[in-house]
Specification:
Helix content is 47%, strand content 0%. It is mainly alpha-helical. It has two domains: 3-109, Four Helix Bundle (Hemerythrin (Met), subunit A) (Up-down Bundle), CATH 1.20.120; 117-156, no CATH class. Residues 112-172 are annotated as: Disordered. Residues 112-121, 131-143, 160-172 have a biased composition (Basic and acidic residues).
Length: 172
């Protein structure tokens, strides 16, 4: 990597750091929409809690991003920028251009999918409504449950139904 490319990446990192720090909230007080929780519906409290958790997660992500950018800027000052922290090989400029705070080459990047944080329902439910349960000792749904429920009633209007079904829709 030449000096011009390093300067370009340093400028980009400096601008990114300024942008991310500008989006960080200085006030750590979590806001609520209610003055009192005494007469609130539980769903209102749940909405406030969900909003607070989401905001905290976003702030945590921004703080991690600031730390990564600062580490990259420090590596530029130390002369170790653009070198893989694991194998010591040069990180391609294209990778650094796409992810300026990358500290590893693509071969040593973390490719692991965090399957532990996936919803537990995914272990049981399939992606099809035709057969939603796997054969692991559970009940197998051989009928299309969704269509049975839809036959009972739905919020569809006649315009949503197929042309052939509109005649039957009015007969019900």
């Amino acid at each position: 990597m030449n000096e011009k490319q390093i300067k370009q990446l340093k400028d980009q990192l400096t601008q990114d750091l300024k942008d991310v720090k500008g989006r960080l909230h200085v006030d750590t007080h979590l806001e609520t929409t209610e003055l009192s929780n005494y007469d609130n519906h539980p769903a209102d409290n749940a909405t406030d809690l969900t909003d607070q958790n989401t905001e905290m997660a976003i702030e945590h992500h921004k703080e991690e991003e600031v730390e990564q950018i600062e580490d990259a800027l420090l590596a530029i000052e130390n002369g170790t920028y653009g070198v893989c922290a694991i194998c010591g090989e040069d990180i391609p400029f294209e990778r650094l251009e796409a992810l300026p705070f990358a500290q590893t080459c693509i071969e040593h990047a973390n490719h692991d999918v965090d399957s532990d944080s996936r919803p537990t329902e995914e272990a049981i439910l399939g992606s099809s409504t035709e057969h939603p349960l796997k054969d692991e000792g559970g009940v197998r749904d051989f009928n299309d449950s969704f269509e049975e429920v839809e036959d009972f009633g739905s919020s569809d209007s006649p315009q949503d139904a197929d042309r052939g079904d509109q005649k039957n829709f009015y007969k019900k």
